[in-house]
Amino acid sequence: MSSSSELRRRVGREPGQEGGDKATSTPGTHTGSSSRARNLCLVLLCGLVVCALALYTYVSLQGPLPPGTHRLLPFLPLRGGAGPGGAAKQPRGAPQPAALRDPAWLAARAHPLSVCAPKINMTSKESYSLWAQPKGRMGEQLKAEIAHLAERHGANPFPPHVTVLGDIEKPRAEMEALMEQLAARTKKYRINFTDVTRGSIFYQCVYLLVAKDPGTMAAAQAAREVFGRTTPPYMPHLSLLYSDMEDGERLKVVDYEIGRLYGENSSYDTLMVENGYDVDSISLWYTPTDDTGLRSWCLVGEYELQG
Ligand SMILES: *[C@@H]1O[C@H](CO)[C@@H](O)[C@H](O)[C@H]1NC(C)=O
Ligand SMILES: *[C@@H]1O[C@H](CO)[C@@H](O)[C@H](O)[C@H]1NC(C)=O
Ligand SMILES: *[C@@H]1O[C@H](CO)[C@@H](O)[C@H](O)[C@H]1NC(C)=O
């Protein structure tokens, strides 16, 4: 009886519940145990203060990352995304940093390629690309489809993506700072596929053509402004295969993919689950185009769109 009322009083004073338990302190419940309960509360309060101080000290020792970047995994030393000085060089009054830094999450995004080391082993010129990568079921399905085609044609697999802007030659720290700027001004958008088709170069062998919707075009335009680039007209697409094969072979792969992704008699595990995907982040990749084996390609970081 008295222990249950003591328990109720303790529960009533948990942090965040102040004033929420007035009904239990009605006259008549005050017995000899009330001073014991008060002592107990004092001890609990002291404990909380010590815990808070310890937590504050721990977080302060985690390094000079700006606030807000720890949201995903607060107690990991999150260093996967930006290199030293990347996000920290934000101008005064800039919005929250957009870099997503959980190393395990980034590794999954980079698969079957890898996340860049803090210092990239440059194989040739320093060249980067901006990718809008699908997530969730759609991402898994396209990843599997790319792996299937790569194996079938002896090519190299890569993560599914629509390039927003490619072949940017700037130092990594500058790239990372500009990515924060781009993420701050770009709105989330939707990518819709319109066709399976083929191109004439290695990196545009067989791909899903993407609709030139306003959101898709606005993101590409913003990237061109932020990175100071004037490039040929934007042809948004999601590559399914990188290869130098003959045009006749490309055409066969196109028909094969139409059958697998959209065909009425394709098996249900290859039929496209959705005809596009939502883009809420853009990733920064090290992508030297002369490395067609993709060995040196790696993910630098991913940035949440906040426009
Ligand atoms: C860097 O790349 C070169 C050339 O591909 C290679 O010989 C070297 O072993 C690499 N170094 C590291 C640390 O990966
Ligand atoms: C993409 O496709 C969906 C479903 O068909 C449609 O509702 C939407 O308007 C299309 N375009 C964009 C930009 O979302
Ligand atoms: C679909 O089925 C028809 C008839 O069974 C067959 O002729 C055709 O080749 C099949 N198409 C694909 C893409 O498998």
From TrEMBL:
Keywords: Membrane, Transmembrane, Transmembrane helix. InterPro entries: Cyclic-nucl_3Pdiesterase, Cyclic_Pdiesterase. Residues 24-34 have a biased composition (Low complexity). GO terms for molecular function: 2',3'-cyclic-nucleotide 3'-phosphodiesterase activity. SUPFAM superfamilies: LigT-like. Gene3D superfamilies: Cyclic phosphodiesterase (3.90.1140.10). Residues 1-21 have a biased composition (Basic and acidic residues). GO terms for biological process: cyclic nucleotide metabolic process. Residues 1-34 are annotated as: Disordered. The chain crosses the membrane at residues 40-59. It comes from the Eukaryota. It holds the Pfam family CPDase. This is Uncharacterized protein. It comes from Edaphochlamys debaryana.
